[in-house]
Amino acid sequence: MNSLFSAIILFTRLPLWRWVDIPRESYDRAVVYWPLVGWLTGGLCALIIVLCPPCWDISIVVTVALLARVLLTGALHEDGLADFCDGFGGGHDKDRILAIMKDSHIGTYGVIGLILYYLLAVRALSAMPAWVAGLAILACDPFAKLCASQLTNILSYARPEGAKNRISYTRMDAAQIALQLVTGSAPLLYLIYKTGPLFGLAAIAPIAICASLMLLMRKRIGGYTGDCCGATFLICELSMLLTVDIICWSVS
After folding, report:
1. Is the pTM of this model over 0.70?
2. Letter string b/e over residues 142-169, b meaning 16 or more CB atoms within 10 A of that residue's CB
3. Given pLDDT bands bounded at 50, 70 and 90, which one contains residue 212?
């Protein structure tokens, strides 16, 4: 339970730390529960999309839902995406890439990356019926976090000095991986149940994207960083949303 609370504290702005005393070592296992935190962040988006007044245009509803998630997470993953784009876009070797990602300032690549992500995410969700969009974000958020969390299980941490928050994620054992698979895939299975088996194809894109990003990170910086995890989550989620959108179009 402490590891679950530590995951909520790390990946959201919910102030559980005010009421729960979490042992330091619990944070090293927090990534195991990252997909489960996706139930919370994706669920918030889904509720807003489904429950917002029907007089609102769907694009406004989707934008409000994604804004609510940003407020809940403190833009943690968006910061990672911006740093990732700046580092891999402007850096030519490992040391330069890591130095750029460590810089708190945002550059041109980071701005473009965030703009493109939100343009595509809003457009993809807006093109779906509201109830499908709600189910899609509920499914894509945990599943993309399941994919992104494998960086910590497969790659080594890229910075020799370790993470600046001094958290070192431990590699997961078989039971923890099984827990991740269940919590990351269950909302996707519900989407398939409600919409049809064809929507199961949406899982292919984030898996392929995650594998490709792992190869890129291993080649360019020899591992991963926290920014890489956040960027991988958002890129995988976007690829999954776009795939769901294509499937919706093909069956309509």
Report:
1. yes
2. bbbbbbbbbbbbebebbbeeeeeeeeeb
3. very high
